[in-house]
Every structure is written in C-alpha cells, then in structure tokens.
Write a structure and sequence with these properties.
The chain has about 130 residues and is mostly helical. The chain is about 65% helix and about 0% strand. Helix 2 runs antiparallel to helix 3.
C-alpha cells in the first residue's frame, strides 16, 4: 500500500499547491495546471479569476487525497484500495465543481458580446424582413 499512498500524496501536493497558487493569483499560465476552459484562457485576467474561484475546491480535493493517502498507508488490503479509489473519484468531482464555479464566475465577469444586429431570431439576415410585423 506504500505505492498507493505515495501516489495519493503526490496528487494531493499538486492539488494543494495549484489551489494555493491560484488563490494568491500567482499560478502562471500553463498547459497542465489550473482551469483551462475556453473562457479562462482568453486573457491573463480571466485565467487568474478562474483559478482564484476554483482554488478552494482544489485545496479541498488535495486535503481529501492526503487523508486517503494516510488511510492507505495505515490500513492495508482491499479496504485501503476502496478508500483510495473513492477518494480519487470524489476529488475529481470536487475539482469539476470548482471548474464549473469558475466558468460561471467568468460568464458573470466577462459577458459574451452580442452577435448580429437584428437579434438573430430568424437564422439569416436575408430573412430579417420576414420576421418584422406586417
């Protein structure tokens, strides 16, 4: 179980460090760590906001993984593996919830620009006159 615990501790360290750096706004733009949605990578400011919003869930996921690593280190056999797998699944869902919250915050902070001058109700600008009342 030492190897399982070591993997969980490494994942926990990555999640906690990413969360702390995201919360402080010092997480550098990269391809591997942090929130990487289309809206988050548009600008440096949006990347920082997204990772600041997702930071608490990243830290919580890291603490959960560290606790599971401790259980895997102390316990042995099948129960330790069940705890490890359950912790990884819950941590992934926790990180996903943080990314969803970050995406919602980005949609509020940086609203999408409106497209089209006629309201885009008809599907084509050539049909615009057909949509107007007679």
């Amino acid at each position: 179980m030492f190897v399982v615990a070591l993997i969980l501790f490494v994942l926990a360290a990555v999640a906690v460090v990413t969360g702390v750096l995201g919360f402080t706004g010092t997480l550098p733009g990269n391809r591997y760590f942090g929130v990487h949605s289309e809206a988050a990578v548009k600008t440096e400011e949006s990347f920082k906001l997204a990772n600041k919003v997702a930071a608490p869930t990243s830290i919580a996921a890291g603490l959960l993984l560290a606790a599971a690593g401790a259980v895997a280190l102390v316990a042995g056999g099948i129960p330790a593996l069940i705890v490890a797998v359950a912790a990884v699944v819950i941590a992934v869902f926790t990180l996903g919830a943080g990314a969803a919250a970050a995406e919602k915050a980005l949609a509020t902070a940086f609203p999408a620009e409106k497209i089209g001058g006629c309201g885009s109700a008809c599907g084509s600008c050539s049909l615009r006159d057909a949509c107007e009342p007679a």
